[in-house]
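Q: Got a minute? One more chain.
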Amino acid sequence: MPAEAIRRTTAQRGYGGRWQKARETFLKRAPLCAECQRHGRVTLARIVDHVIPHRGDQDLFWDTSNWQPLCKRCHDVKTAGEDGGFGNRRGTPTGGQSRS
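A: Always. Here it is, folded:
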């Protein structure tokens, strides 16, 4: 059975009520997309991204120094590079590329 077919729910992966509260607080304190800011753009962040994917490691999951605010577009591009989406090989770095 493919891994996607047995993937746990968001709550089972740690994204339950506690995460939602922490996410909301973090985005109030850091409301702009960090990647867009690096490229001179101002975009509201909607996602709290784990800079280093936690892959289930709860210490890394809750380490706020491993969090960054991202807009959906930047998060999708980053995740695709890490997971092999958009025709990328798994682990292809996407940071530092200009996306107008």
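A: Strands lie at 47-50, 67-70.
Q: Perfect, thanks.
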